[in-house]
Specification:
Layout lengths: L2 H16 L6 E4 L4 E7 L7 E5 L12 H8 L5 E7 L6 H18 L22 E6 L1 H15 L5 H4 L3 E6 L5 H10 L1 H12 L6 H7 L4 H13 L8 E6 L8 H8 L4 E5 L7 H17 L3 H6 L2
Helix pairs in contact: 1-2, 3-4, 4-9, 6-7
Length: 301
């Protein structure tokens, strides 16, 4: 990484630290899965679920990029998915994403007073529109989640409901490249090692062993899921920075996977930087206000 990239990341982080998070409510969904309400206004008729990056997703400190996004004006309720398990077991992560979406649809939509229960066998298009955003590794988990539903031919309201849309931000399509970067680039290696310490392990192999899996299996499983990804084109967009080392292999990855969903290259953007946040905000806020498909908005940026 170049010096200016380090400087920019550090500045973004420091700016994020100056943003004081409002009082948040943590909802327990399962024994390992929690949902934070970051911003809520009963007048807002749109919900946003954010999945953070990294492998450690449970902390009292909201990631700076989420605070940056939530600090910008938007007519939407914002929720943050947290989980105590490490983000290495893909199926567990997919299950938690599904639980979080269902929880939001049950408790934060226009049917909140009607006792209508939303489940995987009951399609309900009357819920408030929901946009699910995954940053970095969180976006990879989101893509895995979508693939897990569509490849199993599950008539899942979360997938086929016309009111749900998905956005990934600076998310890799190639875990092998990702693991090479976090073991090579000093800044990402430092962040990676700090997250491993949360689980009292020294490397990814030992962390995977704890969840009865291996690094090779995680890499191959993610690749397999992406190849089976099948969702309407206007429901999913992927934002990548053209100077982001994490997504540096994106062109070859798209070709290998025959990835057919819209990739939005953000000029002068590094990994989950301020440019990425502002681009994301511009797209989501316009989507919330106009209800136009994500792809339509992107094509007219």
């Amino acid at each position: 990484m170049k010096l200016w990239e380090w400087t920019r990341i550090c500045i973004d982080y420091m700016v994020g630290l100056t943003i004081v998070s409002s009082d948040v409510i943590r909802h327990g969904i399962t024994n390992t899965c929690f949902l934070r309400t970051i911003k809520y206004d009963i007048k807002h008729k749109h919900n946003i679920l954010i999945i953070q990056g990294g492998i450690h997703h449970f902390s009292n400190q909201t990631p700076h990029y989420i605070k940056l996004f939530a600090s910008l004006p938007i007519n939407s309720n914002i929720f943050h998915l947290e989980r105590s398990d490490a983000c290495v077991h893909i199926q567990n992560q997919c299950s938690d994403i599904s639980s979080a979406i269902n929880y939001i649809n049950q408790h934060f939509n226009n049917n909140i007073t009607s006792n209508i229960v939303v489940n995987n066998n009951n399609v309900n298009d009357d819920n408030y529109p929901l946009t699910v955003i995954g940053f970095s590794m969180g976006g990879a988990c989101l893509l895995s989640y979508i693939a897990s539903c569509t490849c199993n031919n599950i008539n899942n309201n979360n997938i086929i409901n016309k009111n749900v849309n998905y956005i990934t931000v600076c998310s890799p399509l190639n875990f092998k490249h990702l693991f090479n970067i976090v073991n090579k680039e000093p800044l990402f290696k430092w962040l990676y090692q700090n997250q491993l310490k949360q689980y009292a392990v020294s490397d990814m192999n030992k962390l995977c062993q704890r969840y009865n899996t291996t690094v090779d299996y995680v890499v191959d499983e993610y690749k397999s899921r992406l190849k089976s990804l099948n969702v309407e084109h206007d429901k999913l967009i992927c934002l990548v920075g053209n100077q982001d080392v994490i997504t540096m292999s994106i062109k070859s990855d798209i070709q290998e996977l025959q990835f057919k969903y819209q990739i939005v290259n953000m000029t002068h953007a590094t990994h989950c930087c301020d440019t990425a946040i502002h681009t994301l905000h511009k797209i989501v806020s316009k989507h919330v206000d106009t209800k136009l498909p994500l792809t339509t908005i992107v094509n007219h940026l």
